[in-house]
């Protein structure tokens, strides 16, 4: 994609990030003299009509979804438009870094955060998720690359491009389609089942595990192996990987990462409350928080060799029966 200098009234200053099909620019709104982030996709360069329609739908979905949300831990959307085949979304510019930059597998992980900071940031993320759920929006692609940290290490949840608005757009990407980022998908996402709010809770559980241990709970050589681990495998307990982690955190993590949605926390708020109790050394009821360790799950796993060979943390939208899918990058 050629780098642009102007979209509508917005001046584009520099590229902040690149995905498989688009760019994010730092820009200026001259009318308000405000720095903004502008996410763009050049629709005219997408040859496949179905893929072009899907991307256009995702952009509209994201604009509509975030426009409904007014929360300190969710990025603010200011404007949306299309010009000469380029769709763009104008958002709040966050001075900070993606959480993913701290979890980069290519670097030796060091505990950049205290346990208190890790819990606080996870709780802020859960507050954002709970607020979205209360407004009928399931994010479906929560991952470190979609969590921005400000200079004060305050959380901003971004990229609602594959969000589902239950009360407005309930037919968008139904069961039978895999949507999300493979390493952060819930078992029901991988097996093409209906996706509800507890899929977001599962994704936050993975992020919490990384905060606590510096590792992902489900690992494998290639996408298919990771999917098998998510559907069938049990992660090592955080307390077994770090002597600084109380077994109370094990109970929180295991419940958030339960294989069956009904065994997870019923809400992001309940997840947050138990996490705070664990930090404060308060007792968490074992019967309420320890899900069964072995559950039989739909064994069918979609396998797509082309997807396995590319970035495992790119967002994926693909048919459950092997229909060629799309990847959107970080």
TrEMBL record:
Binding site for ATP: 39
Record has Transferase as a keyword: yes
UniProt-listed InterPro entries: Kinase-like_dom_sf, Prot_kinase_dom, Protein_kinase_ATP_BS, Ser/Thr_kinase_AS
Signal peptide: none
Domain Protein kinase, chain residue ranges per copy: 10-279
Keywords (A to Z) from UniProt: ATP-binding, Kinase, Nucleotide-binding, Serine/threonine-protein kinase, Transferase
Entry GO MF terms: ATP binding; protein serine/threonine kinase activity
EC number: 2.7.11.1
Name of this protein: non-specific serine/threonine protein kinase
